[in-house]
Amino acid sequence: MAMGAEPAAPQAMRRPPRPPEQHILAAGAWQRLLVLAAAVTAFSLMAGIGAHSIGLPWQSVLFLSLLGAQLGVALGLRARLLTTQNLFLPASVAASALLAMAALYVPALQSLLDTRPVGWTGTGLAVAAALAAFVTARLLRGAFHRKA
Q1: Which of 34, 5, 12, 10 is CA-nearest to residue 140?
Q2: pTM summary value
Q3: Which residues of the chain have pLDDT under 50?
Q4: In this structure, is the dihedral angle defined by the CA atoms of residues 67, 72, 78 and 84, taken in order, positive or negative?
């Protein structure tokens, strides 16, 4: 819902409409979706493998990095990165991050979700995955668009 409240892109009303018979994933959208999904997967797996290799609770790091990478993509796809027109998106990203940390550090949630604290190193790996996904999303925002 927070992404649905995003303001329209500045040039949105100057672009021609999509043809009615065009699929929602046409005009390069499926290619961008595939690249972003592969990036989220790769960055999360790299964080999990890195955590496993240094003896951290890799499953918890993988959980945190997967969530972080997805949130990084959500922020990276914003038309205007620093805007106060929709405060719901950064607020929902922050709330999701806090809930993820609660899943790792609140004892009742730890036992329910079978998670363990990851420490600063594990959190750093997850943040690196989130930042890499954010940068990838920023770079791919305009990619794969076909000119009509």
Answers
A1: 34
A2: 0.76
A3: 146-148
A4: positive
